[in-house]
Amino acid sequence: MISRSATSPNFELNSDKPKGRYARFLLWRNRLLRSATFQKWAARLPISRSIARQRATDLHHILAGFVYSQTLSASYKLGLLECLKDRVATLDEIADHCDLEKQATFTLVNAAASIDLLQKVSDTHWTLGELGASIHGNPGVQSMLRHHDLLYHDMSDPAQLLRDREQASLRGYWPYVDGDHSDPAAAARYSELMADSQHLIANHILDAINLSGAHRLLDVGGGTGTFARLAAERFPTTETAVFDLPHVVASIPPKLSTLSKSFAGDMFHDALPKDFDAISLVRILHDHDDTPVEQLLSRCFDALPSGGQLIIAEPMAGTKSAESIGHTYFGFYLWAMGSGRPRTKPELTNMLKRAGFRGIREKKTHIPALVRVITAKKPNVIFY
Fold first, then answer.
1. Which domain does 114 fall in, by range?
2. Max CA distance (Å), the chain
């Protein structure tokens, strides 16, 4: 990994001026919506009452979103989710486990139940709700919870964060992503986070792709080899290998190192092995700025043989019904981290084309909000 590029990102936005009629309509609509007279009228009219009510609710959810996140954080830190794992408990039992006074416990359990972390069994008993139960099956969420205080600290003054991210807490926690490889502990934290969450998304990726025609797969930036190992288990005829920084490769547990080969190097500076007919980039590109991403894609193109396949898997901006996860959550997270940005499928497609790839396709995953997959081919005849 390398330091953040100083060049401006290539956002590939349409530079055409907005059509006059449409722009005038939007300005008229906005003036109407901010009118107190119109708001009172809309709230009374039956045909528009439900719309006005929903808009008010949506706005309040945005306002309250940080409190929802902190309710999850408190439930995790105080052991509430662990307390109710596989059990039903009374308020007194929960209070004792979380070391809280009864009234404070009552506030927490009701807040948690309102966002489906808990579920009320009776007037006196609670257990985990559907979201709370799912957290126990997702170590990646728990890893994220352990360091999200840093992001929340940065977001306490988002205007300052946008003006100056050099001193962001999250950036200091992940110097490994920002190009500083001198701290082995930071590298270990990052590898642990990736490994914890890899199991969940790896199966979604492997459900979407077919490696039966690939003899050898190289997982670039593959960390301690979780994806490579799972891919080898799913497609036994495909030999898998990992390419990552020397100290990351050195941290691969001995019991896993025998399942796939490993190559040590910097994916932005060192040559990629050329005897692989498939390369995967799992949650790599959105951690880096445009210039290094373009360079990495070109290096993957050069390393692949004619007909070779590149697999990109990561959350993407503009995902239907998950738009806020892309540009809002990952947008600010990556900004605070100091490197990368969420990209849309068209942006990634254009980057792949510039690198020389053709046959670019999206492979549908079960949960696109978590991960989407794009595959691309190196053509047998190179186009200039």
1. 65-136
2. 72
